[in-house]
Design goal:
There is one protein chain. It contains nine helices and 25 strands. By secondary structure, it is of the alpha/beta class. The strands form eight sheets. Strands 5-2-1-9-21 form a five-stranded parallel sheet. It has a five-stranded parallel sheet with strand order 11-18-12-13-14. Strand 13, helix 6 and strand 14 form a beta-alpha-beta unit. The protein is globular, with a radius of gyration of 22 Å. About 45% of the residues are buried.
Length: about 400
Amino acid sequence: MRLVIIGAGFAGMYAALSAARLREIHGVSPHELEIALVAPEPTLVIRPRLYEPKPETLTAPLLGVLNAIDVTYVQGSAVTIDGKSCNVEIASAQGKREMLSYDRLVVATGSHLFRPNIPGLAEHGFSVDQLADAIALDKHLHGLANRRSTNARDTVVVAGGGFTGIETATEMPGRLREILGRGTKPRVIIVERNSAIAPEMGETPRPFIEEALRKLEIETWLGTGVVSLDKAGATLSNGDHIEAQTVIWAAGMRAAPFTAQIAGERDNFGRLLVDRDLRVPRVAGVFATGDAARAACDDVGNYALMSCQHATRMGAFAGNNAAAELLRLPTKPYHQKAYVTCLDLGEAGALFTRGWQRMVEMVGDIAKKTKREINTVWIYPPRPERAAALASADPERVTDL
């Protein structure tokens, strides 16, 4: 039997760990149940940190962990799926194609930044979406030091006032002063189409976010959006033009395109609709998890967000359940009632909230300490030691806050 997991992000990593854990608990050998993880590189990109400096350092090796738990690594990208014959076509970086059969499949292909067809966005816009994007932005920011000092050089426009946009914007003043000199006075502007900053976070934490933005002298232009970019800056839907040599797009996410290969229903973000065991209904043998899945967290209408926190736990349930079906064991319905947010606010600290109502528990330096621990410890892979790695993947305990 073979369980194939597509993707080496947080969901894919924990799917592999959890499936291997169940296999170990029940004394099944890797020869009886092979677990294979498919990804272009055996590396976890620490994507929640890509707004930080030195993004090239924000990766963690996975091969040691996978070897320790007897998970086969298959290098390549999944390009097509044949659900009738239960085969996935894998393409290598060199263009070689091969078919990989599966008895159960876990789709953990993650998400990508939504880039609308806005004139100039592809040519002049930056992002912190993928590792290569963050590295390109970092190189651009350092290159500003070689340009003539102007208001446009020292201005950054961040399109999108959600979680990613706020973390990116609040990091910019410190990053630019470090690059351009302590005497530089950067201008950072968040452009948000909604009438309030952080629209998805609700009213309770918003005053703390607004106070942090005031402290950092970050402007918020609300009720308008970026409609075009050129080398001189950004034009807004209200007709204004902001002169800026750096425009960062941070407005919305979509599930990775591979989900379109699965003949299941999808939501507006391209995520596959799944049942409580994270199966894709009416698609035999296929599970979806992480940012590839729209999954209910509880029985009162809350659904998993496209976040590291949800992806890790969803991955653990998906891997466990896919392996459980093959081993004829009971599955565990996914649930994630505990939910917290920890929003980095740059030099203004951080904001920590708990629950779907986002009740504020910590702000400032205290919350920043927690954010630093999350970013540098909690979200990294377990050490490549078999017992510790497998113990980290109990679905009922992953991200149990």
